[in-house]
């Protein structure tokens, strides 16, 4: 059969419109062509904004599943897309997530690993990013798409389905997942991946599994795929009927309360929230993700809310008649398992960019960008008059809580410190006293980083956040081991700030390898390690549910408890370190750490039994049948508390 021969001019046009690259080279070239506009509401109106590369770099641990393909492409692109060597795949992904959080979801890091355990090590981090709605691009290696050498090293074989691979573990914890089985599939998947990473509603981890043979295969890609593109974050306004309903409720409110969530930060709406709260006379409580939206000195700031919140915020939540929740999914710690504000006299408005969250808890939904909708509410409520008595009530409760803070966080040798029963263990400082020392030695621009155990609760209750960017606690997934890796990511995102990590011995032992990475990269962090000899937080929960201490504190575990020298371990990883025995010594050590140019760890032993009580309740199921009298009594109390829930 005769075929029409293209004219020479047509051939030149086709050749000029494509470029032959390996799949890996095309992927990296595409990433380098993506930029982000850092526009606030004011910037977008004025037409001025800062433009930066969207992808700030790649964390990579190479293996046979990615070194020859992605590794070759990254080597050639180092000037535009730097590659950082990490020590643990989960740790490097945590660092990447923390970087994105510190950048308010505007800039993103990439993580690539080999096939097999290198890939599955990142699944926990993907779940963390998914739970926290944070962007992360994962490029795990995969087995051969052509299956010629199967089974290959580290391949998971499914007896009934040869298409299933270890990377399928990422599917339930990814917002978007694809396995690139042909080079040309990138042309569709890469734009979708970026759209997902930047979508304020669907934001979360993206996984592109890369079979190692396809990484090295070439294709004639359209040049248009690699044209520079500048992205921006959508800022939708509220639907007029929803806005009118919310305005009507707020106009009638006598005792309104705002709950600020992480969405306030990601919308860059902190200044708008401050103005709105001040003009309307509405106190503002904060979730873990929202903490720092207002400085603790703001006249309408009342601290954290919920199980780990301040007594002031929790009392106000019970008394409020209208609650405006902004940018939060209102998880159980915030709502005290749906008992914090479930009164028949209360109405809830959920201002959220996502309809999925805006309709929770039988709320009146108000779907839209936080900064944009706050401006709409401000314009619509110019004639609303706040109740001075309600503002005074909030100020009084917050003042009482601040007095409590001073007592709880004082040096135990200070006259301000609360008296505690005398015992050898209780002579050790509490978590609150350690946090007080760290705060006293902190500057207003410093960042505190934490994740799991009892410390996030103490921080939420007691840390005096100085404003946006100063408080970084991962509590959506509450992942032990995030702390040090996360601090590395925060430091990379905010190199001019001092970054302090507060971490328990349990989390440190789970994942500490990125302390060595911080030394290697010259990204100095200060780690305050509280050694309470075990999992103190869960030990307290265990005892609070009527059980005896068992398998949490090292002394209650099977075997001989080791005496771990954490300072020596940190020194072995390349950090400077020391061990201190008192709050005064800790404060002196913190001064030395601030002067250090290298990552610094300070170890101090603490009391595992003491925590700050705020009178809150959290639903933790108690066995209905038990031979233990303590459990029987705890279940009886639990049954009474359950009656406070709406259903």
């Amino acid at each position: 059969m005769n075929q029409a021969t293209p004219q020479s001019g047509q051939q030149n046009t086709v050749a000029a419109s494509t470029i032959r690259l390996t799949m890996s080279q095309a992927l990296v070239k595409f990433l380098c062509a993506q930029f982000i506009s850092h526009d606030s509401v004011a910037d977008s109106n004025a037409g001025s904004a800062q433009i930066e590369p969207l992808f700030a770099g790649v964390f990579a641990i190479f293996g046979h599943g990615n070194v020859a393909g992605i590794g070759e492409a990254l080597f050639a692109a180092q000037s535009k897309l730097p590659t950082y060597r990490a020590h643990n795949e989960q740790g490097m992904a945590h660092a990447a997530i923390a970087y994105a959080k510190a950048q308010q979801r505007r800039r993103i890091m990439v993580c690539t690993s080999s096939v097999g355990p290198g890939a599955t090590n990142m699944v926990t981090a993907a779940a963390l990013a998914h739970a926290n709605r944070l962007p992360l691009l994962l490029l795990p290696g995969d087995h051969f798409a052509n299956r010629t050498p199967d089974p290959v090293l580290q391949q998971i074989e499914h007896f009934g389905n040869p298409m299933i691979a270890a990377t399928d573990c990422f599917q339930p914890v990814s917002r978007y997942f694809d396995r690139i089985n042909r080079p040309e599939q990138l042309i569709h998947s890469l734009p979708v991946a970026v759209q997902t990473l930047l979508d304020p509603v669907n934001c979360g981890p993206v996984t592109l599994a890369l079979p190692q043979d396809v990484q090295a295969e070439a294709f004639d890609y359209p040049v248009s795929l690699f044209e520079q593109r500048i992205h921006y974050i959508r800022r939708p306004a509220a639907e007029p009927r929803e806005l009118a309903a919310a305005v009507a409720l707020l106009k009638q409110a006598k005792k309104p309360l705002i709950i600020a969530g992480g969405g306030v930060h990601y919308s860059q709406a902190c200044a708008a929230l401050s103005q709105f709260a001040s003009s309307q006379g509405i106190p503002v409580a904060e979730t873990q993700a929202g903490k720092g939206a207002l400085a603790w000195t703001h006249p309408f700031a009342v601290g954290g809310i919920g199980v780990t919140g301040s007594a002031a915020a929790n009392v106000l939540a019970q008394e409020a008649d209208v609650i405006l929740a902004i940018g939060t999914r209102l998880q159980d710690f915030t709502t005290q398992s749906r008992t914090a504000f479930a009164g028949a006299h209360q109405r809830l408005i959920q201002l959220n960019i996502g309809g999925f969250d805006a309709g929770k808890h039988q709320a009146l939904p108000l779907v839209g960008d936080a900064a944009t909708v706050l401006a709409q509410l401000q314009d619509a409520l110019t004639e609303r008059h706040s109740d001075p008595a309600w503002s005074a009530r909030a100020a009084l409760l917050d003042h009482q809580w601040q007095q409590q803070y001073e007592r709880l966080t004082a040096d135990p040798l200070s006259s301000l410190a609360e008296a505690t029963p005398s015992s050898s263990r209780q002579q050790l400082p509490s978590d609150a006293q350690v946090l007080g020392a760290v705060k006293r030695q902190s500057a207003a621009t410093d960042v505190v980083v934490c994740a799991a155990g009892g410390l996030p609760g103490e921080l939420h209750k007691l840390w005096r956040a100085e404003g946006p960017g100063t408080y970084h606690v991962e509590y959506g997934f509450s992942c032990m081991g995030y702390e040090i890796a996360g601090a590395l990511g925060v430091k990379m995102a905010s190199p001019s700030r001092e970054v302090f990590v507060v971490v328990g011995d349990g989390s440190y032992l789970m994942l500490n390898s990125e302390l060595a990475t911080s030394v290697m990269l010259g990204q100095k962090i200060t780690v305050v390690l509280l050694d309470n000899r075990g999992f103190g937080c869960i030990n307290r929960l265990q005892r609070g549910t009527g059980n005896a201490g068992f398998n949490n504190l090292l002394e209650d575990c099977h075997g001989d408890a080791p005496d771990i020298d954490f300072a020596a371990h940190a020194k072995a990883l390349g950090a400077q370190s020391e061990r201190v025995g008192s709050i005064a010594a800790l404060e002196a050590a913190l001064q030395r750490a601030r002067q250090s140019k290298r990552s610094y760890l300070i170890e101090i032993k603490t009391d595992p039994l003491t925590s700050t009580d705020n009178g809150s309740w959290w639903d933790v199921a108690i066995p209905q049948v038990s031979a233990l009298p303590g459990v029987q009594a705890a279940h009886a109390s639990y049954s009474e508390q359950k009656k406070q829930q709406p259903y």
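Residues 410-605 form a domain with the Rossmann fold fold (CATH 3.40.50.970). Residues 1-11 have pLDDT under 50 and may be disordered.
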